[in-house]
Write a structure and sequence with these properties.
By secondary structure, this protein is an alpha/beta fold. It is built from five helices and five strands, in the order βββαβαβααα.
């Protein structure tokens, strides 16, 4: 999505935290723009990479993080340096809104349900279809969908995404 002056409008980056992270960038219209999994391997490589990841995803209006600990602190410090608002949530937060209770009975069930719903979000958004979809990227896609609902970029889960 672009602004009237031709510039890209600020989006939202959702990150399923870890040394292997899922990343999903959403546009202001609430649609997924791109998604991927990225292996940072070590905390020091993560620290060097986060500024580059945020630069590549720019312009951003929101950074949304699932998880905590030292990995989250790296992302939050860089967001603070850029005056970028951060939403930090747990998997239970977005799963409660997007998955049925029966799909949340175990981690394995939740990951399977997330994969299926993420593929529907990708199709609805007209994003590139995955050759393979890692669970961290699928969860970042759904974290981002939760976030665009939370910040008001979408009023409700789009038709066809719920079973």
């Amino acid at each position: 999505m672009t602004e009237p002056n031709g510039a890209e409008s600020p989006g939202l980056l959702a990150v399923d935290l870890g040394l292997r992270s899922g990343l999903a960038r959403y546009q202001r219209d609430g649609r997924l723009h791109w998604y991927r999994s990225q292996n940072f391997a070590t905390q020091s490589r993560l620290k060097r990479a986060v500024p580059q990841v945020l630069h590549a995803a720019a312009p951003l209006a929101w950074l949304v993080l699932e998880g905590g600990g030292p990995v989250a602190e790296v992302w939050e410090r860089e967001a603070q340096r850029r005056a970028l608002p951060v939403l930090r949530v747990s998997a239970e937060d977005w799963r409660a809104r997007l998955l049925y209770a029966r799909e949340q009975r175990s981690s394995a069930l939740a990951k399977d349900a997330a994969d299926g719903l993420a593929r529907r979000v990708i199709e609805w958004s007209h994003a590139d279809r995955p050759t393979s979809l890692r669970h961290d990227a699928a969860e970042a896609v759904l974290l981002g969908l939760w976030a665009v609902l939370e910040v008001g970029w979408l009023d409700q889960v789009p038709n066809g995404l719920r079973r």
